[in-house]
């Protein structure tokens, strides 16, 4: 528990002093430590721990995925009885969790999302819901699980359950924690789909708002570890120890044997698939939005019991439909079997595969609806993707399944169970894709067209139309199907479906985040911001200052009078002019007020030589907690008469913008750097210096004179 | 040719006025246009053109790749005779071009890199050098070709060759041009390796310093177009119209039939491959650095003739070695052929494949050194990667090849021919990979180990050790070999080799960029920046101001007295105080001085009602040109006595930082936003307002009160 030297604002010209308690201080602090006590070793230790944690996240998420898979395959009978009691104690609003994680990485900490009990709830909840056969997948929860593991590691365990360890408490800045959570997200996708590169790209494209190339490497490492862990577990399970898990191999739905070639005429039906995907995806987003809205405002206000009844009801309906509908469907006779295809019809009892004999009268018959409906989702998708099974499904069955499953997916999304939208999306998409494929086969009468290929494209198009990802989705689709030759087609279908979907609404996660009131900053500034200046944005909102040395009673009354989170601190120079010495955070003031150790009797600034009496970690708000409120502070009348000098605790150089800067520029600054507060200041009266590229190149380049260089006129000059 | 209204600085509170001529002005300008003349249509047109250009880049780069491939396969005889005359007229320093493109996207315009004649030189140069059998690849030049096509489109053609079109001149800001060049880079990689996703990631990871998610989508689109173009051309070529091109199919080195499984014991030799890759890669970077240095300082100073002689000499040595060495090697007897493997020994004459009979005495013999050496690079790699050919190569041959080819690659890199480093890197890596594989086969005595798999890992490790890419390289390796199952192994090998290489030096492109004096800003600020403040960085360097209304003679003398590129402009308020009204660029001043239309007789500010007499495009410097110099300006004595009001031309809100901000923060600001100049200003005396996240969310969220939110303490507060 190291303490650092107090240095007042006025002495800070060396830049390494206590600026604030944001991440740079940590680094300065680490730097000071390094000089003072442990030398370069400490920095090395810090880096090693970062990588070690990335390793642990990989292992942890991989193991969680394996555990869930094994449980789903083997203990599907558990279903809701045990799991609901756990879910109840964990984070209340379940669902996919991805909008909240997206929010966290965008800069908003939703209460309760990254706790230990959320982790446990997610693991058992997804076993229950996926094993129970609901129309949802386990990949959303796995992303959340990865993020939880990362966050718990980052803050050194869970204090509430006494699982915390001093040794682990290395990361005290939110930036490091956020980096870990990004690793966790990638690990989740990598574990869910056994798609390590897809995981990296998912973290890059969908989740994080803020990216550095060093982080990319660490995320990549985490994903690779997940791949190795999952693969090792699968190898270990091969001998049949873990039930069905692992039988698919590392690639979940291997269609490498599918259509190798395509002709120009096929581009039209493929474009149609893209359009359908965009339309159905946008519709899905809109319907889930309405239903979630209704659910929040009417249903869930009646308490937790209603949530559980609802989930059970949905589960019951799902079971009835997936068992009942196939019963109503007549069985079809088996096709003439090709000896080399290796596909038996009907499939042998107790095995997984195509051509399910479901209460069929004759021996050589199968029920095509049961083949999709009365199967695990993984197997249903494998069947839909399968090549060399032309005419397995009738259009009527596929259409029935599409309508029913689409409705079930819409209704299930947003119930109080952990839900992923990838697998249901793939189910929906591959169904209509296969439908289109059937018509193509009939229309073009060519034999080398495989319906399974169209099913794959359909799956890509629906996911593109609903989630609006491009690169990561593309890579995930390739990684889970092991068919690189279809990559250009997947790319084109995705582009079309995303474009069509974007014409209607935003992506699924963004819509859900809006609905839950998570204020995501989009990557593109709004169009009307061009006409606005920074000053106009602040409007007439009065700026509430803290003086440098402030009476405790005044501090309390200022905090009570508004709900701002950041306050400028001003000081008076000897000439009487005021000067802004920095930014003070509400949370930090509350910590100071609660500890009381910095109170002083005199209204004069402290001289800067006293050691600060605070441990750094006191100022760090635990993730997902509510932090201290002003109502938690209890002060005696004597305390209220004391003073406090804020200078050692301010962030002495927050980012500033001139008053007439256009809001577009401000927005880019805010989002690219992940800021929380920007000071709008008057136009400067003079310039002390200019910094240009050459000032930032500290290393000397001996040959720099030999090439003629001209700066490109960069984005924002 | 639209002109926009002059509005003086003092009237600019609406924020949409003429700030400067950087990209935001363009957008404001477009916005004004939209209101004034064409409505929303113009904005739509702008977006459509962006996409259309992305399409053109894709098609252009794809066709260039096809043209080069066909030419290399068929006209290898041309070699240097024709091509050198073209190279001489094009951009002088050839080589890979990637360091320069990297520099351009990082914000530095090297003279001559993106011209029409560079494009032509690159195309014919790479045909000559690759077709001539030098130890280099065509992928570096293809990246450069993609970037050239993009840049030429962006500035509306080449003025010099009268290929320019008014219609194409839509993009007037450097930001849009830079985005196009990013698309071009991705297109180049996608075309070279037929690896569209790899192209996107290459652009993301290696080339661009600055990334937005909108851009990602467009880059993705360009890559998809390239894939479709290349694939279509290959389909058209299948009938044998284009020689050998296209025979490999869309995946260049398909090894999908290789080793499917691996055991734990194999991880050790694989890790060894990673370490070797790191060591050899770092050594390669270091050797090429020394040689390039020597070449620049001694050899190339003697003129172009020396360059050509050098290239011919290298070519001659390469030919002698690749023909001569196999002659010295004894032939081996063919292995007992397995009927199902489909590999004939020796290969039939006129075909491509394994087991080359090269002056062998007997019929059933082959020369293993000739199989690698006396072959096109593509085929040599295919042979090295090939499975089911255990014991094809002797350790002696592989070692000979490794040493010779490594030396040739080092020597060839940096000659005056367009060179890519990917293919040679794959050659080198797969050779030692296969060597290790041979020992593994011998040591573990397991039959399911394929030497080809180790060759692939070796290739990945050498590229990782030399170029230090991770994600994009990984995806490229998977895309060119079509073997997803090896992905986790490739990832681990890459991580090891990158880590080992990083211990010695920087990546190949960074080292070369340093050597050529391209001042790249790395993604991570230097460690010592933590101790420095913005003010210290500026040092005692005096700030040179322009007054708002300035005498032309003074302007000239200020410009002559220093070589700064940006100048603060100050004005005097009625109270006598000075105020900084913005930033003026040297290039813009020079344009004003040359055109003379804004000269005025009175030293008083103009009243802001006159229209500006400049077309916007006058201020845009063409890419790769030197721009105007102060020596190009010729003014009469009368002109020198005139005045000019700079206010309408300044960037009125450049980014500012307070004097005591730590340099780490400044660096992040500079790099993340791609800036050229930052003003260091004194601490503010007051704060006009605070901007926080909620001020930037212009849309209302009706439900935002229902969830408890707390901001995460973001990176830089």
From TrEMBL, chains A, B:
It comes from the Eukaryota. Pfam families: CBS (PF00571), Voltage_CLC (PF00654). The keyword NAD does not apply. It is found in: Membrane. Residues 650-706 form the CBS domain. InterPro entries: CBS_dom (IPR000644), CBS_dom_sf (IPR046342), Cl-channel/antiporter (IPR051280), Cl-channel_core (IPR014743), Cl_channel_pln (IPR002251), ClC (IPR001807). GO terms for cellular component: chloride channel complex. It is a multi-pass membrane protein. Keywords: CBS domain, Chloride, Chloride channel, Ion channel, Ion transport, Membrane, Repeat, Transmembrane, Transmembrane helix, Transport, Voltage-gated channel. Belongs to the chloride channel (TC 2.A.49) family. This is Chloride channel protein. It comes from Nyssa sinensis.
């Amino acid at each position: 528990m190291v303490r650092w030297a107090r240095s007042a604002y006025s002495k800070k010209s060396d830049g390494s002093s206590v600026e604030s308690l944001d991440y740079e201080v940590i680094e300065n602090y680490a730097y000071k430590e390094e000089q003072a006590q442990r030398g370069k070793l400490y920095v090395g230790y810090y880096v090693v721990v970062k990588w070690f944690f990335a390793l642990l996240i990989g292992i942890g998420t991989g193991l969680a995925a394996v555990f869930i898979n094994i449980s789903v395959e083997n203990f599907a009978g558990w279903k809701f009885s045990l799991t609901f009691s756990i879910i109840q104690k964990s984070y209340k609003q379940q669902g996919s969790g991805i909008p909240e994680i997206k929010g966290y990485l965008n800069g908003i900490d939703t209460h309760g999302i990254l706790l230990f009990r959320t982790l446990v709830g997610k693991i058992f909840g997804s076993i229950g819901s996926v094993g129970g056969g609901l129309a949802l997948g386990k990949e959303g929860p796995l992303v959340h699980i990865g993020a939880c593991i990362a966050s718990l590691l980052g803050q050194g365990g869970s204090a509430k359950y006494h699982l915390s360890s001093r040794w682990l408490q290395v990361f005290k800045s939110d930036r490091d924690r956020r980096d870990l959570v990004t690793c966790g997200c990638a690990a989740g996708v990598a574990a869910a789909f056994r798609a390590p590169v897809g995981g990296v790209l998912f973290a890059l494209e969908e989740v994080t708002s803020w990216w550095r190339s060093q982080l990319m490497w660490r995320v990549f490492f985490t994903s690779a570890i997940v791949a190795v862990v999952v693969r090792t577990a699968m190898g270990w399970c091969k001998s049949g120890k873990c039930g069905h898990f692992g039988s698919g191999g590392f690639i979940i739905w291997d269609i490498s044997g599918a259509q190798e070639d395509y002709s120009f005429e096929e581009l039209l039906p493929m474009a149609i698939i893209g359009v359908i995907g965009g339309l159905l995806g946008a519709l899905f987003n809109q319907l889930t939005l309405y239903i979630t809205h209704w659910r929040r405002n009417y249903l869930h206000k009646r308490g937790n019991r209603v949530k559980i009844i609802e989930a059970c009801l949905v589960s019951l309906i799902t079971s009835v439909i997936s068992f009942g509908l196939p019963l109503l469907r007549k069985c079809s006779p088996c096709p003439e079997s090709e000896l080399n295809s290796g596909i038996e019809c009907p499939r042998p009892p107790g095995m997984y595969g195509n051509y399910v004999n479901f209460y069929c009268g004759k021996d050589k018959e199968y029920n095509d609806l049961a083949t999709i409906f009365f199967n695990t989702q993984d197997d249903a998708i494998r069947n839909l993707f399968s090549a060399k099974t032309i005419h397995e499904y009738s259009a009527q069955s596929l259409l029935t399944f599409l309508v029913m499953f689409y409705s079930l997916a819409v209704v299930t999304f947003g119930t109080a169970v952990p839900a992923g939208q990838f697998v249901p999306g793939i189910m929906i998409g591959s169904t209509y894709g296969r439908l289109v494929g059937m018509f193509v086969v009939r229309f073009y009468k060519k034999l080398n067209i495989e319906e399974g290929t169209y099913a794959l494209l359909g799956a890509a198009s629906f996911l593109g139309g609903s989630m609006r990802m491009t690169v990561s989705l593309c890579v995930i689709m390739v990684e889970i199907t092991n068919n690189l030759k279809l990559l250009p087609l997947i790319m084109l279908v995705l582009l079309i479906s995303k474009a069509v979907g974007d014409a209607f609404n935003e992506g699924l996660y963004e819509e859900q985040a809006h609905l839950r009131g998570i204020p995501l900053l989009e990557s593109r500034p709004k169009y009307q911001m061009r006409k606005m200046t920074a000053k106009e944005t602040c409007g007439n909102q009065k700026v509430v200052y803290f003086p440098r040395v402030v009476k405790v009673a005044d501090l309390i009354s200022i905090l009570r009078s508004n709900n701002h989170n950041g306050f400028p601190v001003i000081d008076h120079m000897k000439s009487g002019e005021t000067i802004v010495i920095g930014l003070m955070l509400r949370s930090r003031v509350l910590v100071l007020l609660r500890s009381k150790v910095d109170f002083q009797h005199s209204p004069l600034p402290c001289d800067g030589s006293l050691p600060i009496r605070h441990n750094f970690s006191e100022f760090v708000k635990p993730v997902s907690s509510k932090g201290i409120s002003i109502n938690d502070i209890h002060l005696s009348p004597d305390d209220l008469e004391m003073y406090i000098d804020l200078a050692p605790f301010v962030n002495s150089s927050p980012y500033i913008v001139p008053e007439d800067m256009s809001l577009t520029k401000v927005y880019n600054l805010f989002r690219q750097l992940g800021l929380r507060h920007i000071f709008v200041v008057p136009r400067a009266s003079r310039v002390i210096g200019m910094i240009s590229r050459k000032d930032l190149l500290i290393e000397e380049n001996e040959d720099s004179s030999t090439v003629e260089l001209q700066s490109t006129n960069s984005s924002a000059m």
